[in-house]
C-alpha cells in the first residue's frame, strides 16, 4: 500500500524546475509544467500542494543547487528525498533526455521506491563542509601556482640546488636572490612569487578558521579522537567529519568502506568471478585524504612525540584503538609489499582498513556498543 497520495518529481536547474506528479496506484505520471527556480515560485507551488490537504512526497537529484529546496519543502510539512544521481535506474535503450522526461521518471521511480536517498547534512554540518572544501580548493590553487613558478624557473635554467626541500626558508631566500636576464622576466618572476605567497596566506587563514570553528562544533570530540591515529591531523580529521557527519549512522565498517568507494569492483557470472579496481563511488574528498594518510603506515609502528601529544587529549579506549590500528596497518603494509603489489594499491588497501578503525573510534566516542567489530 502506498503511503502517500502523490509523488512529485522535481528536475532542478539553475533557472528552472520541471515538475511531474505520479498519483498513488498504477496510473502513469503526468507533467505539471516548469516553474522558475526562485523561493517565491517554489513557495507558491508548495502552497498549492498544501491547500489540497493530501500527503505528498517530493524528490529531486542531488547536485549543484544544494539543499535549500529540501529544507524549504520540509518547512512546509512535506516529505522530501534527495536522490543519488548515479544510482537512478535507467533503461539502456533510452536515448531521449529532456527536463520533462526526467521529472516524470523521478516521480514514477519515487512512487515505486526505486530511488536511493543521500544523507542530507544539517546547516551546521554544511557550513563546516564548505569551510573544509574551501581550504582544499585554496590548497589546490597554491599547488598549481607553485608548479607554474617552478616551470618558469626551469625554462630559464634557474634550479634550486642549495637544499633538498622546496618552500622552506632557505628556498625563499634563494628565490629572492634569483636574477633574470630581462627586466620584464624579473617582473614575471615576482608576480609568480607573490601569487604563491598569497596562496600560502589563504591556506593558513582558512586553517586558522578551522581551528576556531572546531571549538564550537558538535562533532569536536570525534575530530579530536581521530587525531590519535597515525597520519590523521586536524585538516584530515575535520574533512572526514565534515563530509560524513555522524559515522554511527553506518551499521558496520564495511558499509562505510563501500560508501567511500574503497571496495573492489566486481563482475561475476556463473562460476567466473572477477574483481577489479576500487569502485570510486561515494565521497571522493574523504577517499582522497584517507589515501594520503595511508602513506604514513609504510614505516614501522611507533609512538612518536607528535602522535603521543595528540593521543593524550583522548580517552584510553580511543588510544588503544589507535595503537592497535597502527600495529595492524604497518604490518599489513609490509606484508602486502612482500607479495609484490605496487605501492599505490597497497596504500589504497590500507586506506580501506583505516576507514574501519575510524568507524570504531567514532562509535567509542558516541558510546555505541560493539565498536570492537571493526577491529576483528
Describe, in plain words, how this protein is organized in 3D.
The protein has 376 residues and is α/β, with parallel strands linked by helices. 53% of the residues lie in helices and 11% in strands. The strands form two sheets. Strands 3-2-1-4-5 form a five-stranded mixed β-sheet. Strands 6-7 form a two-stranded antiparallel ribbon. Strand 1 and strand 2 form a beta hairpin. Helix 12 (316-338) runs antiparallel to helix 13 (343-366).
Task: Tell me the layout of helices and strands.
Blueprint: E1 6-12, E2 16-23, E3 30-36, H1 39-52, E4 56-61, H2 68-75, E5 79-83, H3 99-112, H4 123-155, H5 169-177, H6 183-214, H7 220-226, H8 234-244, H9 253-259, E6 264-266, E7 275-278, H10 284-294, H11 305-311, H12 316-338, H13 343-366
Parallel strand pairs: 1-4, 4-5
Antiparallel strand pairs: 1-2, 2-3, 6-7
